[in-house]
Amino acid sequence: MRIAIPLAGDQVAPHVGHCRTYLIADVEDKQVVRSVEVANPGHGPGGPPPFFLADQGVDLVLAWGIPPHARELFRSRGVDYILGCNGKAADVLQDYLNGTLKLTDEGLEGGGGCHCH
Fold this sequence. Notes:
single chain; alpha/beta; Nucleotidyltransferase, domain 5; six-stranded mixed sheet; 3 helices; 6 strands
C-alpha cells in the first residue's frame, strides 16, 4: 500500500492541494518500508494534485481537509482518503498503521471544503 500525506513542515498541511510537499510512504504488513518527500507540482502541467498522487501509485491519502471537487478526482482515480488528520505527519502515519488514528473535524467547515477558490 502507498500512503500520501500533504506536508506543512513536519505537520499535516491544512489543504491537500496547496502544500509544498507530500510524504509518500510504502507500507507492508503495517510497517513503513520506504518513504520519500516529493514536491507538489501544483495545479499546472500533469493535472491537479489528485491526478499527480494517483500517478505516483498512491492508494490512500491521510489529510486534514480535501475540498469536494478534489474528493471526486481522487475517487475517479481509485484513491481513498481519510479526513480530519492533524498533527505531525509521522505520528499520523504511525497511528493509522497502529489503528489508533484520532480524527478531528475542528475547523473543517463543509467537511474539508476549500475556502480559497
